[in-house]
Q: What sequence folds into this?
């Protein structure tokens, strides 16, 4: 998952509160770092996305393959 795909996935799943979650929510799976801190520390975007989804109880069906642009829209 690219960083741009991570941000697109966060926006699609969480809407306007997504930015606040990335900046403020400490994630247990990432040693109590926020998503932004973990990304800055080099944690792969996919791992951060999955940790965020787990913390926010996002159903597994909405965790994989998100954030990618629709190839028909290119």
A:
């Amino acid at each position: 998952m690219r960083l741009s795909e991570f941000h697109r996935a966060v926006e699609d799943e969480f809407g306007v509160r997504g930015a606040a979650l990335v900046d403020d929510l400490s994630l247990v799976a990432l040693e109590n770092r926020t998503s932004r801190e973990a990304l800055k520390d080099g944690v792969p975007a996919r791992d951060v996305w999955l940790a965020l989804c787990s913390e926010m109880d996002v159903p597994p069906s909405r965790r994989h393959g998100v954030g990618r642009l629709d190839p028909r829209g290119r």
Residues 3-14 form the longest helix (12 residues).
